[in-house]
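Recap from last week: sequence in, structure out.
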Amino acid sequence: MLLSVFLIKEYPSLNTFVQQQEDNLLATQETQPYTNNTYGYTIQYPQSWTVYEWNKTSTTFYNNYTGTISGGTWMTVTVTSYNSKSFDTLFNAQPGLVGSGSTTNITTKVTNMSIQGYDTVNYTLAKQQTPYPQFETHYLIHRGSLTYDIAFISVTNDVANYNSDLFEKIINSFQFTQ
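Predicted structure tokens:
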């Protein structure tokens, strides 16, 4: 009985610890490069991830190491024409809540930064949608007439939180090739 009480009280902490250890393992995996010659960039991603090139402007890198819908983590790199109003609104905002376009989407600015000398905004977006919520961490890079949006996405915020080391490793590998 005492063991049962202990397990019930400590299960969330133990489960969180085990999940964090699994997720940190991803950050130590060997990576391989992906190169997009059309838009001139390369980025490293874990070898165990699958690559989907939807079209010339959007590529998704996906991993589902738990085999469940909530265990998946994916990264999408999307290249679009530069929209000064959208970018400047985020870039010039103070860190914190930027806005909620609706009651289902909440944007929070993390910080401004530079990637290879180009203005970059790091922000998060929480989408409350059916059937699963979506938690996104974005790195929006302005380079000339284009915007490169590197988004890390999961259906649970814990996956995003536990994989911050992996996300940082991937972002640090991003390079313009031309």
